[in-house]
Specification:
- By secondary structure, the protein is an alpha/beta fold.
- The chain has two domains: 55 residues, no CATH class; 178 residues, Rossmann fold, CATH 3.40.50.
- Helices cover 31% and strands 25% of the residues.
- The protein contains eight helices and 13 strands.
- The strands form four sheets. The protein has a six-stranded mixed sheet with strand order 6-5-7-8-13-12, sandwiched between helices.
- Helix 6 links the parallel strand 7 and strand 8.
- The radius of gyration is 18 Å and the shape is globular.
Length: 242
């Protein structure tokens, strides 16, 4: 109720800039020790729920997929290692955390300027040298890209030999569903579930395209973690170079 009231009073940019200030007041009502956010590391008695029923951290606003991503990142990447990390369209909670990490050279990028970022890289032609990044976050990006094959080749080109890429998109069972004749925002919403999506991947279909681009693909399906607010049956693709 407080958040909806603030949206009516203040412009979006002002709320984003002062988000953590306002969340301090929200957090007071959720203080406790039943749950914890692995991003801001605050504890609380319950999660906030958004309009889609997703569990949000009352302290930093992280979504379940953000918390899953950082949890797996910590498992896969050594904590003391200095790394270059490319993050496409970063969530605000991850952006704030990763900008503070001294062992990470952080490259947050968003071509649309809808997200907080410092770069505007086109994923089909990333302006860096070969084998530049140690790690790449490519979460809910490829379903927006018409030339996804070019994007996958670029991710492979800029990744170091021992680097890792974390990939996630919406998934359906069966085959990849795409139709180049579907162009309007209205039709894309109807057929692909969102007005700026150009396809819906299947897990196997996406893995096959990534393998064709030169990646070794590990398909990871996770159990629920109620303490961290992580969803059951969530799928993530972890990529390394062949």
């Amino acid at each position: 109720m407080l958040y909806n009231s603030l949206k009516k009073i203040f412009p979006k940019d002002f709320l984003i800039k002062n988000e953590l200030f306002f969340r301090k007041f929200i957090y007071v009502f959720y203080a406790g020790k039943s749950h914890q956010c692995p991003i801001c590391e605050k504890q609380f008695r319950k999660f906030l729920l958004n309009q889609r029923g997703e569990k949000l951290c009352p302290a930093c606003g992280s979504m379940p997929r953000d918390r899953r991503l950082i949890t797996e990142f910590k498992k896969e990447i050594p904590a003391k290692e200095n790394i270059r990390l490319l993050d496409f369209s970063p969530s605000r909670s991850l952006y704030r955390k990763l900008k503070r990490e001294k062992n990470i050279q952080y490259y947050p990028t968003d071509l649309s300027t809808d997200f907080i970022s410092e770069y505007q890289y086109d994923i089909t032609k990333i302006p860096v040298e070969n084998q530049f990044f140690d790690c790449i976050f490519c979460y809910h990006i490829l379903e927006h890209i018409e030339e996804d094959g070019k994007a996958m080749l670029e991710l492979h080109r800029v990744l170091k030999e021992n680097g890792k890429v974390f990939v996630q998109t919406p998934f359906i069972k069966g085959e990849i569903y795409e139709d180049p004749k579907v162009k309007t925002e209205e039709d894309r919403l109807k057929y692909f579930g969102q007005k700026d999506h150009v396809r819906i991947y299947s897990v196997e279909g996406l893995a096959g395209r990534l393998e064709k681009a030169g990646f070794k693909v590990q398909i990871k399906i996770f159990d629920e973690d109620d303490y961290l607010g992580l969803r059951p049956n969530e799928t993530q693709l972890l990529l390394t170079k062949n």
